[in-house]
Protein: Glypican 6a
Amino acid sequence: MTAMWRVLVVFCTLSVLSLSYGGDIKAKSCSDVRQAYTAKGFSLVNVPHQEMSGEHLRVCPQGYTCCTSDMEDKLGQQSKLEFENLVEETSHTLRTTFVSRHKKFDEFFLELLDNSEKSLNDMFTRTYGKLYMQNSEVFLDLFTELKRYYTGGNVNLDEMLNDFWSRLLERMFQLLNSQYHFTDDYLECISKYTDQLKPFGDVPRKLKAQVTRAFIAARTFVQGLMVGREVANRVAKVNVAPACIRALTKMLYCPYCRGLPGLKPCQNYCQNVMRGCLANQADLDPEWNLFIGAWVIGASLISQGH
Structure:
């Protein structure tokens, strides 16, 4: 069930199940209205004690009424406020879920990357000592670029990994032939034949496949969480159209003006009004469900280490 459908169900359930206290349909007194009106936090100044002619009303029926023009305006504003608050509250869990999941995954993946860099650095330092330390920037640059890719940087993974192996080959070739001096053109020529020479065997191909798969999945997943959060934030900020406010006021508060503050709308009526107010959000429903489905599958695959 989508967040917008939950808004509809919750709002209409609350409207129908709200406690209604008696008001005689034939009664001319506005005492019940005054009690309900002040319970909403409004002042009773200029609120009538008895029904009066309602020609001044613009939203509610213009028969005998307990509402002044000011009351009708305030009840319209109250309808809008209650609707906005309900949408905000209902979508809050969804939004906080995206935020917390993004934070946890981001911290987890960056920690994983940092630990990998540290482990490799410690192992190579123990194994090759000063020789590695003098050339460690090749590996440091690799991890810097991997982090930049993951965080949304404009990095071509394939080109970056190819460049890493080319740089590593040039360094090793120079170290193994330290008695000679090689020009940049000569070293560049050597790096061009890396695929044919295969000085590192099949390691570059296997590593490229593993790194590319892992980082594309991680970056796509974390960006999906960010997109979901932004969509949820925007959808939660409902632009309440004047027609929606009128419909909400008629449904929720025009009974006040008729002297029947306890009268509540039927379920179908309430749902129709809510569908109209959430029409724009409802258009997102198919795409949103596809996004959530893909996100759940992605989370499952990553958690399984695929």
The chain has one domain: 3-303. The CA atoms of residues 244 and 277 lie 5 Å apart. The longest helix spans residues 69-128. The radius of gyration is 33 Å.
